[in-house]
Design goal:
Length: 331
């Protein structure tokens, strides 16, 4: 594939050296994308507010709503315990004050997961490995990340290291053609670690800003997958002891609490540095993002809220919570 030479935005001392991608989505746009989670979770809570005063039965039903939205038992209990405490200590007596309290509790869960863009390196490309099981949108998410950075003027390269599936290689090459960025690939069944090594060598020689590495997407309990991922990581480190810079796991929010076991397995295998949570627009189980934050506190790099390239958004805890909560009643 022909290499596309885009304008580079290397920074000088004192300037912001992050990979500047497109601006984050506005809250109203995110609000429209999280309809199912909002209606399933906070739509139910809003109806509770209309039927109850601030008594024990209201708090019990709020906990039930949180469970339905897949926050999980531990997180749901923690949230409600904090609401009860706040109501008692601050003498909350109306719906707006309780919603404000709920907002603060949810924000405290998610704020530790906010993270800045990855930083450019002056003499080499930043290397990001993307891992995940089949069907979660791993390769598509990787391509959307590439699109963001490419459109911001960064030189991007893709590495097709999911050599287990020929279709995965073709999918990434199609994305490369569409985005006009180079893809390093070999034939189906090739050594994934060798592809990653070649890609890093090529990306460094060409002065690329970022190398995005797609990896095999079999089930996380598959021992061969774990061995392959650890080998890719190990071989990249032989090329440069400082890479990979990031290892991100893509998870499908619609899988609910099952994503917790995926995160645990991958984290134990390759020490994740971040998460990409996809398909939040199509599920009422988006509350699992709070369970992920509580259990792992890993940075949430991106959230997926649709099929188009522009539907990948930087994670913003405040915007996310505000998109889910009901608007406060007018005074």
């Amino acid at each position: 594939m022909k290499f596309f030479s885009s304008k580079k935005h290397k920074t000088t001392e004192g300037q912001n050296d992050s990979l500047e991608a497109q601006p984050g989505a506005d809250k109203s746009g995110l609000f429209s994308r999280l309809t199912r989670t909002r209606d399933g979770l906070f739509g139910g809570i809003t109806s509770l507010f209309k039927r109850h005063t601030l008594d024990d039965s209201l708090f019990d039903e709020i906990e039930d709503q949180l469970l339905v939205a897949d926050l999980g038992v531990a997180v749901s209990q923690k949230v409600v315990a904090r609401l009860r405490q706040d109501a008692r200590e601050n003498r909350l007596s109306d719906v707006p004050s309780l919603i404000a309290s709920l907002r603060q509790v949810l924000l405290e869960l998610l704020l530790p997961c906010e993270v800045d863009e990855v930083k450019l390196q002056p003499m080499r490309p930043v290397v990001v490995m993307m891992v995940g099981v089949n069907g979660v949108g791993k390769t598509t998410t990787l391509a959307k990340v590439a699109a963001r950075y490419h459109s911001a003027g960064q030189q991007v390269m893709l590495a097709a290291c999911d050599t287990f599936r020929a279709a995965a290689i073709e999918q990434l090459q199609t994305w490369g053609d569409r985005l006009n960025v180079p893809v390093i690939a070999q034939s189906h069944g090739a050594d994934a670690a060798a592809v990653a090594f070649d890609a890093y060598t090529s990306a460094k020689a060409r002065g690329c800003d970022i190398l995005l590495v797609d990896t095999a997407g079999r089930q996380h309990t598959h021992s061969d997958l774990v061995e392959q991922l650890t080998k890719v990581k190990r071989v990249l480190a032989k090329a440069d002891p400082d890479v990979p810079d990031e290892i991100w796991l893509t998870v499908d929010a619609g899988n609910g609490q099952n994503v917790l076991s995926q995160v645990e397995h991958f984290h134990n295998a390759v020490s994740l540095t971040g998460l990409c949570v996809t398909k939040l627009d199509g599920t009422a189980k988006g509350g699992v993002i709070f369970a992920l934050a509580e259990r792992f506190a890993l940075p949430i790099q991106y959230i997926g809220t649709g099929e188009s390239v522009d539907d990948l958004r930087r994670f913003d805890a405040e915007a996310f919570v505000d998109a889910l909560l009901p608007e406060l009643p007018s005074a």
